[in-house]
Amino acid sequence: MLSPVPMVAPAARKSRQARVVWGDRVVTVGGDAPVRIQSMTNTDTVDVIETAIQVKELAQAGSEMVRITVNTPEAAAAVPYVREQLDRMGENVPLVGDFHYNGHRLLTEYPECAKALSKYRINPGNVGKGDKKDKQFGQMIEAAMQYDKAVRIGVNWGSLDQELLADLMDENNRRAVPWDGRQVMYEALITSAISSAQRAEEMGLSGDQIILSCKVSGVQDLVAVYRGLSARCDYALHLGLTEAGMGTKGTVASAAALSILLQDGIGDTIRVSLTPQPGEARTQEVVVASEILQAMGMRSFVPSVTACPGCGRTTSTTFQELAHDIDKHLRSQMPVWRVKYPGVEKMKVAVMGCIVNGPGESKHADIGISLPGSGESPAAPVFIDGEKALTLRGDRIAQEFHEIVQAYVERRYGAAKVDN
User: Which residue of 104, 159, 307, 385 has the lowest C-beta tally within 10 Å?
Assistant: First the structure.
């Protein structure tokens, strides 16, 4: 007797929950909170207007925290004005300060910067050497406690604590059966992150306000490190490949690594670190991150558009153009629709190219259209909530379908808001 095929879903996460706050905006990270998306500007922070504009663009694309570079006294002095500009624009997304080498000094000497940020990113490999390391790390933790800020202790294998790595290498050489060199590197990453978090807790910072990351650039390396890290602590974890790359390479590598870990129940906030291609918007990394979570069934951000890839039956480009236009239209409307039409992000739209799968896929969507393939009658049936509603003909099919989608959103999701 056949047994049903087991259903699958991402494993439950077991991390503590941090709070990243600005004013009334509280972004929870870990615990039972949704997996969060964050991104980072690539502007010079000293340019207040340009930085604030890019932060707002990233936030409107779906980034729930935005990291900015704080690398010089001038950048630190500019941070409060970036925050002020965002507040004037009505954008309350929390800002994360990215500190390396001189963060202890900048947070101490520029208290308004420390106050304006909602989270500090600290790299244990770049907080000083020898006797200075503990002191300078401590100054950053003290600032976080003074101003009630969350911290991300972010270890990167390109800037590992060399003293720690040397000690672990020496220890490995004394083993009867030495570990592989890569395994020693994994241990250095994990040990650096956890020991730094424990040191912060010993100083008085709540463990609930600590988020850890161990960034590497290889998919299998990332999976190995985070499985080890999650097995040894319950801090909230930030996921992301460092230097993921450009275009397809960076997108595929990030999707592969993050999906494996998220399915394992590992990861509370993610970033897709894409190198923008010439002319490409910085917001593309946010789009990819949201698509990963939506494809995993973990969150919904924008209505999904199902479209066939095309074949010999669909020699016309009409359905390709319509699918692209609909997807672009839905994304552009989301900043308004998200507020005006609750639940619209779960809507499913189908734009199909011929009679083979077109009607069936359209019936499974909330609203769908099946365009005529090569040699088929020039008619496009439209399905709404699983039922054939009407058939479009003529040269205004695309425009009329746009109008039908808009009317459907207003009717279905506008009513939902009234009911609430």
Answer: 385
